[in-house]
Amino acid sequence: MRVSIVGSGYVGTTVAACLADLGNEVRAIDVDRRVVEPINAGTSPIHEPGLEPLVSAYGGDTLRATTDYGAVTDTEVTVLALPTPTDSAGGINLEAMEAGTRSVGEALRHAEDYHLVVVKSTVIPGTTAERLVPILEDASGRREGVDFGVAVNPEFQREGSAVEDFMEPDKIVLGTDGDERALDRLARLYEPLVAQWETPVVETGRREAEMIKYANNAFLAAKISLINDIGNICKEFGVDTYEVADALGLDDRISDQFLRSGVGWGGSCFPKDVDALRVAARDAGYEPAVLDAAVELNDKQPRRLLSLLDDHVDAEGCRVAVLGLSFKPGTDDIRNSRAIPIIEGLLDRGAEIVAYDPVATEPMRERFPDIEYTEAAIDALDGVYGAVVITDWDEFATLDTEFDAMARPVVVDGRRIVKRRDGITYEGLTW
Ligand code: UGA
């Protein structure tokens, strides 16, 4: 099919490259030349495992990028993959989404054939029908359901495995409110994946599709907070939460995923989506008690970790190492990383911080320019009075004699990654 993707962030670029790989003719539309040019030259503007080879194979060929929304009219389907960031009240900011939708609508004014617009961005239930469709109709002068269709098709891609998650999905959600023409066209796009993996396809309403995305992220975030709550209780009783979680995971109803307890969840999605859902629920007159508690507990985990450090080290005036700065391993993304409240807490205590991360140093340096950063974990450990572990990078599992470089070998592990050994004081956050 001929498909345009609006927005070349990590979702848009991945979707564009994967759809090209599935044999489609793809146009990536972005207002930023700095992402358009590399795509056409065959280089990915973002780092995601498996993405570079796809952009290199199709970029400038069946995957072409442009800043011109006119490209929409060369295609049959337009996928909106624009950001919906948090606004000052915790809800979603629809500015980029509405501006992009208007530009698509203006392009559709010149479309000759029926066109399908697909909302992939995460939006609160009702947004597509109540906010986006009117913009499309107004800008195009055409009618939804007659001249064009609008579907909701959320994504469930994780940073670090976005290509694999797209190519081998657990489910495909198609929200069309029963519009057969829209459904047929959207289903065609996913046909090769469904044929290959027998992926379950959820055909549903647009509001339901919008909600499924929030519910998915809210459920996973709350699952981590629940295992963290249980973990904190385990710690009080001298119980190893990870042994408990292994047993829990054997119950099919629970599953063994997202049961790693520790310093909590971060990233660009869970905090944003859980907050947006809580704000929307309150606006609708409902108090989301479990989600409120999930967030509250998540905010507490870094404080608990620091208080474990306090049990062993008076951080004031002491050098303390922070190992791991990204919100999870495999990415240099520090958005809502648990390392941020940890660094703030250490600064409040008057500690001298020395931080290490294999890839996320530069983004964190922009946020905290005045702390020290090292090129290797061993350099961060040299002469410190304590170390806190915030990201479960594999390399931290092999740290051993490196701890001998510490002035006082106190390690507080927030991710169950460091191996305990004689000669170090080891505290697991929830074990
Ligand atoms: C998340 C979802 O997993 C994706 O399905 C979704 O598409 C994406 O958000 C999105 O909305 O775009 P991502 O933010 O890349 O993906 O990160 P995850 O791999 O889900 O991890 C989130 C956080 O939870 C990380 O800070 C991680 O360290 C933490 N986590 C995860 C735990 O603390 N324990 C676990 O057992 C698992």
Structural write-up:
The chain has 431 residues and is of the alpha/beta class. 42% of the residues lie in helices and 14% in strands. The protein contains 14 helices and 14 strands. The chain has helices at residues 10-21, 33-40, 51-58, 95-108, 127-140, 162-167, 180-197, 206-237, 241-249, 270-283, 289-310, 339-348, 361-367, 377-381; strands spanning 2-6, 25-29, 63-66, 77-80, 115-119, 148-152, 172-175, 201-204, 319-323, 352-356, 372-373, 386-389, 410-413, 425-428. The strands form three sheets. A six-stranded parallel β-sheet has the order 3-2-1-4-5-6, sandwiched between helices. Strand 1 (2-6), helix 1 (10-21) and strand 2 (25-29) form a beta-alpha-beta unit. Helix 8 (206-237) packs across helix 10 (270-283) and helix 8 packs parallel to helix 11 (289-310). It is elongated, with a radius of gyration of 24 Å. The model has no long low-confidence stretch (mean pLDDT 97). Bound molecules: uridine-5'-diphosphate-glucuronic acid.
Write the layout of secondary structure elements.
Layout (H helix, E strand, L loop, with lengths): L1 E5 L3 H12 L3 E5 L3 H8 L10 H8 L4 E4 L10 E4 L14 H14 L6 E5 L7 H14 L7 E5 L9 H6 L4 E4 L4 H18 L3 E4 L1 H32 L3 H9 L20 H14 L5 H22 L8 E5 L15 H10 L3 E5 L4 H7 L4 E2 L3 H5 L4 E4 L20 E4 L11 E4 L3
Parallel strand pairs: 1-2, 1-4, 2-3, 4-5, 5-6, 7-8, 9-10, 9-12, 10-11, 12-13, 13-14
Please supply descriptive tags for the structure shown above:
single chain, 431 residues, alpha/beta, 6-stranded parallel sheet, 14 helices, 14% strand, binds uridine-5'-diphosphate-glucuronic acid
